[in-house]
Amino acid sequence: MPIYSPKSSGGPEDIVRYGKQFLTAAQKAQAVDNIGAVGAPSSGPAIAWRIRQLVGNTVNLMALGEVEFRGVIAGPTLAIGGTAIASSLNSTFGPSQCFDLSNSGWWQSDGIEPNPTLGYLFAAPVDVVQVMLTAISGGGGAAAPRDFQIQKSYNFYSWITVSTVTNQTGWTANEIRTFDI
User: Fold this and answer.
1) CA nearest 109: which of 140, 150, 173, 64?
2) How far, CA to CA in Å, does 75 sit from each of 82, 122, 128?
3) Is the pLDDT of residue 98 over 60?
4) How far apart are CA 76 and CA 31, in angstroms?
5) Are 50 and 161 in contact (CB under 8 A)?
6) pLDDT tens figures, 155-171
7) Residues 135, 174 contacting (CB under 8 angstroms)
8) Confidence check: pLDDT of 88 > 60
9) Residue 33 pLDDT class (50, 70, 90 cuts)
10) In whole angstroms, how far apart are CA 171 and each of 47, 144, 145?
């Protein structure tokens, strides 16, 4: 099975559907260039990190205002210079709105997919030790994930669960929660 298969020209409009994430051919090639060994251990840097909802507070829907993948506890986000990725979309704001450090927009899944994902494809592999999630301002935490996995990928094809978080209920508007890995 190939790691990726780009479409035609490789220009900015050249979008490749890979799993359920959409990337340009250049971004896909970047992921392939940074590939790790299949079956690599769960510790260490990875090219992509994501949140995968297992159970939502509102059926299958997941929405977040901001996400930070941090390399040190309470440190700055590592999600700079890469590409936001999501498995679905149902709002006027795309997944990049969750990585702009402003909480002025948000990302929302389509509400149909049973296990929506939101994550980041980094410019180079990173080691994440903490994840910060911010609930959206409108509607508060009704669409924040209740049970979810923090996953990483060395090749953007297979995902390794590094942490499972459960029973995250009672989110309020703009509430920030951090999760150490």
Assistant:
1) 64
2) 18, 17, 11
3) yes
4) 23
5) no
6) 988 999 999 999 999 99
7) yes
8) yes
9) very low
10) 30, 7, 9
pLDDT of 40 strictly over 90: no
> What are the residues whose beta carbons fall under 8 Å from the beta carbon of 94, sequence distance 6 or more?
84, 86, 107
Sign of CA dihedral 67, 68, 73, 74: negative
Q: Give the confidence band of 54 by pLDDT, cuts at 50, 70, 90.
A: very high
Residue 145 amino acid letter: P
110: how many CB neighbours lie within 10 A of its CB?
Answer: 15
81 phi and psi angles, rounded to 5 deg: 85, 5
Three-state secondary structure call for residue 107: strand
What local confidence, expressed as pLDDT, does residue 59 receive? Answer: 67
* pLDDT for residue 76: 96
pTM: 0.78
The residues, ordered by sequence, that sit 6+ positions from 47 with a Cβ below 8 Å of its Cβ are 30, 31, 34, 35, 36, 121, 122, 124, 125, 153, 154, 155, 156
Neighbours of 128 (CB within 10 A): 23
Q: CB-based contacts of 14: which residues, under 8 Å, 6+ apart? A: 6, 7, 8, 24, 25, 26
118's tokens: 């939101």
Structure tokens at 108: 């929302």
Per-residue pLDDT at 34 exceeds 80: no
Contact 160, 42 (CB under 8 A): yes
